[in-house]
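FORM 7B - TANDEM STRUCTURE REPORT

SECTION 1: FIRST PROTEIN
SEQUENCE AND TOKENS:
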Amino acid sequence: MTQPTATANAGSPTRERLLDAAAELFYREGVGVGVEALCRVAGVSKRSMYQLFDSKDGVLAASLERRAPAYLAFLLPPDDGGTPRERVLHVFERLEEMAARPDFRGCPFVSVTAELKAPDHPASLVARRCKDALTAFFRREAERGGAGDPELLARQLTVAFDGSGVRAVMQGQGLDGLALATATALLGAGGVGSAAPPVFPGP
């Protein structure tokens, strides 16, 4: 698999336009978008693209790498307090918010990996690092909250997050509290916060 090429043009306007276009197109239309369409939307020549990256795979991986910090910053709570339970539920509140938007196409990192079906693809590796960062956040909060098995709870919360996003895409509608209720149940079962049973939304 190819990697993004190392270049002194890392912050060039051409590169930024290309990555902006890639993030939008690949999320909306999938990784099958061709180089010509990508360059046309970005207003970049194919020659310029190949001077910056050795392939479309490199553009895809770089676009995910660039998107990851902002994505995590949106999901994760600020470091200014809150109980572990509140901090974890903040992530699921953000997911509920995203899933209610008409342009929601699921988690961009899950979507790309599912389309590629290649765990060793550069973009899949980037996606995995982003997901590992989310799981690490859940694990830290589970430890702070006194979970019996923080590692297991962190993985369960990650599965609930990803599965909820997939369901929203498949059903073509928001989650209506389902993701939040599921996370609440997992936290209670794992020994973090209130163990009171959550109220699940209707069908």
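SECTION 2: SECOND PROTEIN
SEQUENCE AND TOKENS:
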Amino acid sequence: MSAVIRKIVTVIEEVHQEMGKTISPPTRRAAAVAVIENPFAGRYVEDLSPLIAIGEELGEMLAKRAVAALGIEGPAAHSYGKAAAVGSDGELEHAAAILHPKMGAPVRKVLGKGAALIPSSKKRGGVGCTLDIPLGHKDAAFVRSHFDGMEVQINDAPRAGEIMVALAVTDSGRPLPRVGGLAVAEIKGDDGLR
């Protein structure tokens, strides 16, 4: 089963100033969001494997769109995160089926690596609900400068029988990071932690 996509929205955010200080180069993040039909809206279904396959399909597509929006090659990405919101006729397990079993592998392929877990969130919401996409460094979870998040909203989604699926990618960490932790230059990228 392929995703039945109603719309795709891509959002780019650049921070040029923070607390009166110039950020040069600006920190940038992009989120690609697909609004899809929920094939299981309004009913309990034991086998969610079609949604798992949709997650794999969307992982590659959304990663390519987010990286292209930043104008970088996949391996140049620093952080990533994913999120989904089911409409009122869906259940959280529908979002989990898309986000967890198979979405990560195609994202990592587009980005050229990704030793760390992809942070994620899921929720049920109505039209216009916000998605808070958690972000973490793609190769080392202990890089505190990259603990972040990106908020996205689509004014007409998710409808009751839809799912919003988002992937965010950055080309840097937070602006003006100064809370310690592993530095980007110290990343080994072997275990997903350091």
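SECTION 3: OBSERVATIONS ON SECOND PROTEIN
The two ends are 38 Å apart (CA to CA).
The chain has a mean pLDDT of 96.

SECTION 4: SIGNATURE
Preparer initials: ____
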